[in-house]
Amino acid sequence: LVNRLISPTGHVSGINIEILKPGKDEQEVPDITLFSRKLVEEFRLAHPDIDIYLIGGIVFDFAFKEVGMGDMATLVPAMFVVLLLVLGIILRSFSGVFSTSIIIALSMLTGMGLAGWVGISLTTASTNAPIIILTLAVADSIHILTTMFHSMRMGKAKHEAIAESLRINLVPVFLTSITTAIGFLSMNFSDAPPFRDLGNIVAMGVMAAFVYSVVFLPALLAVMPVRIKAKPESKASTCRPCEGLSSFVIKRQKPLFWGMLAFMVVLTAGMTQIELDDDWIKYFDKKYAIRQAGDFAQEHLTGFDIIEYSLESGESGGINEPAYLAKLDEFKQWY
After folding, report:
1. CA 244, CA 249: separation in Å to the nearest integer?
2. Cα 317 from Cα 335, distance rounded (Å)
3. Is 317 left (phi over 0), alpha (psi -120 to 50) or beta?
4. For the chain, what are the domain ranges?
5. Which of 24, 183, 205, 308 has its CB surrounded by the most CB atoms within 10 Å?
6. pTM of this structure
7. What is the pLDDT of residues 279-292, one digit of tens each?
């Protein structure tokens, strides 16, 4: 029991509770965890001089979902606000920022709504879907808006500029969306169901973003006031930084080609430094109780990674033979 349920100094002891879940209701894990937390709080009130930590597989499962839902409530709004600020700087148009935000929100809600209709449950992996959809959905709207604004600066009327933007961007945006969706749908080949769910949700959200961008966005822009000042053709079609960059690349094409190739090789070589590791307890920040309990248990009792060996005796009842027991003891001493 030492170093497993009792610390070497005897100042820490563990209580191991085996829970057999019926497996009939998704609410089993939350109910067990919340009830256990209630017992812990009652014990702490009755014995304030004793520290008690709650750890285990069921607690881990609930913590993943709990933290994921917390991230959705904080990271998604924060990223949305940052994205709107960046869009405002790039587009410099309230109508463009507002319409893009509508498309992004509809795409995220559609992806999550379709997930609910097809019976996909939220897990640690799938809770990241809204952030991924938000990131991908903005590209479709940006393509259509920038082309439309450029056409209006060239002197075209708003409706004519919308039609021109759709003519130019419909096929590229469709190809981008469908290839992105196919890429995420390939996650269905994963052995982990949560990652399959993530891929399906993002794929649905990406295709929803395409439909909204080519159907709803143009209609919204057509009825919204869009103020873009027309400029002389020479000024509207000139991008001095773009011309400077293109001239630089053309003049130094060979040095840039070999230099970028070497740069990419150096970066790619970093893949050899990647280590495969999966320490579940480090998935959580130290501010969470589950991480604090896990670190305490690993420091004073035992870790959560267990190596098991199967030592065959070679015959029925052979594990009771003195020769086998002696060999087993030799293995124990060696290990």
Report:
1. 9
2. 24
3. left
4. 68-241, 242-273, 311-335
5. 205
6. 0.71
7. 777 778 788 888 88
